[in-house]
Fold this sequence. Notes:
The chain has helices at 3-14, 61-64, 80-86, 111-122, 160-167, 195-207, 217-220, 228-233, 236-245, 250-263, and strands at residues 19-22, 37-40, 54-57, 102-105, 130-134, 172-176, 183-187. By secondary structure, it is of the alpha/beta class. Residues 22-26, 28-29, 40-43, 60-61, 106-108, 113 line the site of S-adenosylmethionine.
Amino acid sequence: xxxxxxxxxxxxxxxxxxxxxxxxxxxxxxxxxxxxxxxxxxxxxxxxxxxxxxxxxxxxxxxxxxxxxxxxxxxxxxxxxxxxxxxxxxxxxxxxxxxxxxxxxxxxxxxxxxxxxxxxxxxxxxxxxxxxxxxxxxxxxxxxxxxxxxxxxxxxxxxxxxxxxxxxxxxxxxxxxxxxxxxxxxxxxxxxxxxxxxxxxxxxxxxxxxxxxxxxxxxxxxxxxxxxxxxxxxxxxxxxxxxxxxxxxxxxxxxxxxxxxxxxxxxxxxxxxxxx
Length: 276
Ligand SMILES: C[S@@+](CC[C@H](N)C(=O)[O-])C[C@H]1O[C@@H](n2cnc3c(N)ncnc32)[C@H](O)[C@@H]1O
């Protein structure tokens, strides 16, 4: 299955009430959104119709997240009727505030940028948020180079997978076998968790930033990737939407999602070392 087809299913299944996209380019993935959205890209060149209430930001994601309240455009206010008129959830202001329902990160394809994007997106997320990274399963060493020299380029974003497995094992990080270069769907976000922030410098220093990147065989062979069809067919999306609606607790919600993922063969033992 091609990545945009999978994303189309995701918008249908997650029924997001808001959407954040990092890396917009021509707007192909942003065009899938029909809900209040933010798109961030220093060089977008949108060439198609968009059908969402959109705040489009011409900047890098790092700069975007330095704003005082970057997701303000998506926030529900105090007045439920005004929220209704603006297409925001009516009562979220009184139910813990607005959190991101769906985010797609497809910006700068270098590990440290992707890691910062995850850390920043997680600040505005909750366990039911669906955070998707593109280009985590390069097909060869050339595609994974930090210095781009191929048409299709993933860079070394794949290093996010072992990094999360090692430092944030409680996250549900699902590698998805989409074409051309795989997706990573992350569930169970916790804005109160500061581990990545605390160890950021050490994690990046350890990652190895010289080309050629020794891409592990489990990445190239997609050993731990689930079938996109199986993931789409899983009842986990209904659980996730229900948990979000009723603001189910993190532990109960996460346990339910984990059980659904085990049912479709998500490998619990992911590699932990970046060059394993
Ligand atoms: C692969 S394209 C995005 C494609 C789009 N998501 C789609 O599927 O149609 C990557 C985009 O990321 C943008 N980009 C590069 N560095 C970025 C950064 N630091 N922050 C946000 N976007 C960035 C580029 O300008 C480029 O338009």
